[in-house]
Amino acid sequence: MSDARLNLDATASELVGRGGVGDFVALLKPRVMSLVVFTAVVGLALAPTVPHPVIAFATILAIAVGAGAAGALNMWYDADIDRVMVRTRERPIPTGAVEPSEALSFGLVLSAVSVVVLGLATNWLAAGLLAFTIFFYAVVYTMWLKRSTPHNIVIGGAAGAFPPVIAWAAATGQISLEPLVLFAIIFFWTPPHFWALALVRSGDYARVGVPMLPVVAGIDETRRQIFVYALILVMLGLVPAGLGFAGWLYLAVAAGLGAIFLRLAWRLRWGGGQVVGPVARRLFGFSILYLFALFAALLAERLAGLPAIGA
Q1: Where are the alpha helices (DSSP H) in 78-99?
Q2: Confidence (pLDDT) at 310
Q3: Could you tell me the CATH superfamily of domain 1-175?
Q4: Residue 15: predicted pLDDT
Q5: Where is the chain membrane-spanning (predicted)?
Q6: Low-confidence ranges of the chain (pLDDT < 50)
Q7: What end-to-end distance do the CA atoms of the chain give, in Å?
Q8: Cα–Cα distance for residue pair 21/70, rounded to 1 Å
Q9: According to the model, what pLDDT value does residue 311 have?
């Protein structure tokens, strides 16, 4: 393995595995999981076939557990660089609360359980998509893309975009245009969201040899690509209304927050060097609100029975 592994084997013996329930919960990346769960709920709510509440609960639970399993496997593999980076050095494995072998076993068991439960509760198309998502995040992104290409976030972002597709497949047994549009929104949201963070944490990534875009291509190129992806994202955010599965509430939210998103991306792109840090932080935080609000508007319209545009 490359030097980026940072002598994990030499330090693994120091990890005493003294963690409690909270440490194993932290392995699941609960903040990331919460957004995954929410987008899956929206995908399930939008599906034309409404599953039984018990099946719906099993679907969301399986997707949540699968997302958490992928997070645990990510932390197991990245323990060496997590120990060095300021943002991640308090995670359970770097602090010695959980041993790497425990995290690996935990992630593998949860992966298998989540896929089997989803398959038995709904259908094997949904279970297969969940299995692929876990594999893509843990193996394709974490073990390969993250340390080999500055496009790691672009390609790897597909893993976080699958939950609404999985939920839709669980409810209907098929994949349709609507969940693919939701997939595209999350997919194009991921690069500007994470590159904004990478601009602030570029020193961390450089220190551990992870080729994030600011490290490899520089700050100016990162700012340019953030703006390009933000522009595509905001246009995609309007598509649900154009295709007739979202209403006027959604359109107003997508247009209003999209304008703010573009304004922040514009300021980051064309502002002087002194604005990079503050504006990148604002964009990173606002991007979370933007994605949440888009999906919340879709859910609110469905729960309130509001008609879609053109219906």
Answers
A1: 79-82
A2: 77
A3: UbiA prenyltransferase (1.10.357.140)
A4: 41
A5: 32-49, 55-77, 97-118, 124-145, 152-171, 177-200, 226-243, 249-268, 280-300
A6: 1-16
A7: 57
A8: 18
A9: 67
Dist. CA 116–CA 102, nearest whole Å: 21
Question: What span, in angstroms and rounded, lies between the C-alpha atoms of 94 and 186?
Answer: 30
Q: Are 123 and 173 in contact (CB under 8 A)?
A: yes
| CA gap 141, 136 in Å, rounded | 6
Q: Which residues, 6 or more positions from 240, have their beta carbon under 8 angstroms from its beta carbon?
A: 178, 181, 182, 246, 250, 254, 298
In the structure encoding, which two tokens stand for residue 107, read together?
């992630």
Handedness of CA 236, 242, 243, 247 (dihedral sign): positive
pTM of the model: 0.92
Name the DSSP letter for residue 203.
Answer: H
- Specify whether the CB–CB gap between 256 and 154 falls below 8 A: no
Token pair for 247: 């209403």
Give CA–CA dist 168/175, Å, rounded: 7
Provide the sign of the torsion angle of the four alpha carbons 89, 90, 94, 100, taken in this order: negative
Q: Which tens digit of pLDDT belongs to each residue from 240-282?
A: 999 999 999 999 999 999 999 999 999 999 987 677 889 999 9
Residues in the chain: 311
- What's residue 271's pLDDT? 84
Burial class (CB in 10 A: 0-12, 13-18, 19+), 124: middle
CB of 33 within 8 A of CB of 71?
Answer: yes
The Cα–Cα gap between 36 and 42 comes to 10
